[in-house]
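Ops channel
N.P.: pipeline sanity check, posting one input/output pair.
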């Protein structure tokens, strides 16, 4: 493959944009080499500036669950654009998408829309603190909740990849209110709570993490957190920015039947436009301004363009519940195909999958938390990533990221991917 134009564009970008990118993982630092520049995308495929066609397994990190340039979303956005893209005044479509989201997701009465997953998680924690009158929060090593200060403590993917789990610029004062636990370690969480009796406002967690690769919750782990939160008057926040409207219509809460107190959304909920949201039962949401004292606002929050994209996406998913099964089937097929090739070539691996999320760790021990994810062989991952890219398959450019399948992928695309790995596998051995 030729990357001449991408390479030139990256050089030019680096002159004017820090590192040439507007979000660090795009720069390929974790895998080496230079990023490709996308010219356009349709369905399951990316087309880069050098004319290469690639099968896309990141789907803009999740939002493009029904494929790129999905017609109902494209049409909705075009129609709205003609009528003006933002007024800063209420519009009917905000209530339409709120009502639909509340119907799709278990246990929520009200929802507020923001512009990113970061904003959603930051606001959810403020709301939890305001509601409980307590300051401290518990998060899990390797879980990512956006780039706001309280979360940049062992924050998974981007932050880990760049070796700065505690980013400069986050004050000690902020860091001391964020307590760290290990994913899948309920006893550890119990100890933290006991050592900080009466001080913890909330536990925030990716219920199925995707930011240290995909990790599966052990049986009883999420249920145990639910119980601990009940016992200690702590709010449980599920960060479903990745999993919401992806693993099921009602996200992990529906799929695994565990109810959180506050849920955050992003990615799919915006259909590819910048949207985030947080939601809870009425008692909690009524603490938000203007109804309650906890302040939260946004000039472009709920703008008609973003809401039109999000509504068209949620409607499509709501009317087509089989899509979640279709995605899970495709992901299982890919998982089994990859596993078969790696096993045949005696390449140590461990693959985690749930629904349409899957990740390949080059380590034969089970990957259950951040430490075990970090033990995987990153040199093999780099060769794997570049080898697949060369063969026309775009995987996440970091071992700490999940793949996000989209329903435009055909079984022929999956077979192509598995065959590409089969060609590449001998190179991965040494
Ligand atoms: C992507 C992500 C975020 C941050 O969302 P942005 O829209 O990038 O700010 C938060 N939490 C999780 C679980 C995510 O995957």
């Amino acid at each position: 493959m030729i990357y001449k134009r991408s390479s030139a564009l990256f050089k030019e970008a680096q002159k004017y944009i820090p590192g040439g990118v507007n979000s660090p993982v795009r720069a390929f630092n974790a895998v080496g080499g230079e990023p490709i520049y996308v010219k356009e995308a349709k369905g399951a495929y990316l087309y880069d500036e050098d004319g290469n066609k690639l099968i896309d397994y990141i789907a803009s990190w999740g939002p493009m669950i029904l494929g790129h340039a999905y017609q109902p979303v494209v049409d909705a956005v075009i129609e709205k654009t003609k009528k003006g893209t933002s007024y800063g005044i209420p519009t009917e479509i905000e209530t339409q998408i709120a009502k639909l989201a509340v119907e799709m997701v278990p246990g929520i009465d009200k929802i507020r829309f923001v512009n990113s997953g970061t904003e959603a998680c930051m606001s959810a924690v403020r709301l939890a603190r305001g509601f409980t009158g307590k300051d401290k929060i518990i998060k899990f090593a390797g879980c990512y909740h956006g780039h706001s200060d309280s979360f940049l403590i062992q924050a998974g993917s981007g932050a880990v990849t760049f070796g700065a789990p505690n980013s400069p610029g986050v004050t000690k004062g902020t860091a001391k209110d964020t307590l760290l636990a290990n994913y899948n370690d309920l006893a550890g969480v119990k100890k933290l709570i006991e050592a900080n009796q009466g001080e913890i406002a909330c536990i925030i967690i990716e219920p199925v993490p995707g930011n240290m690769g995909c990790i599966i919750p052990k049986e009883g782990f999420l249920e145990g957190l639910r119980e601990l939160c009940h016992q200690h008057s702590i709010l449980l926040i599920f960060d479903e920015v990745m999993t919401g409207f992806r693993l099921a219509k009602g996200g992990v809460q529906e799929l695994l039947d565990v109810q959180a107190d506050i849920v955050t959304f992003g990615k799919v909920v915006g259909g590819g436009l910048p949207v985030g949201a947080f939601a809870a039962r009425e008692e909690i949401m009524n603490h938000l301004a203007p109804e309650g004292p906890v302040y939260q606002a946004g000039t472009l929050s709920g703008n008609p363009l973003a809401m039109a994209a999000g509504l068209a996406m949620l409607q499509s998913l709501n009317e087509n519940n089989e899509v979640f099964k279709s995605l899970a089937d495709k992901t299982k097929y890919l998982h089994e195909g990859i596993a078969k090739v790696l096993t045949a070539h005696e390449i140590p691996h461990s693959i985690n999958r749930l629904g349409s999320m899957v990740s390949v760790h080059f380590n034969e021990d089970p990957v259950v938390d951040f430490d075990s994810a970090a033990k995987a062989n990153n040199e093999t991952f780099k060769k794997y990533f570049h080898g697949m890219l060369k063969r026309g398959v775009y995987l996440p450019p970091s071992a700490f990221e999940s793949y996000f399948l989209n329903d435009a992928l055909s079984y022929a695309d999956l077979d192509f991917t598995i065959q590409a790995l089969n060609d590449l596998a001998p190179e991965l051995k040494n």
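N.P.: looks fine end to end. Confidence is low (pLDDT under 50) at residues 159-165.
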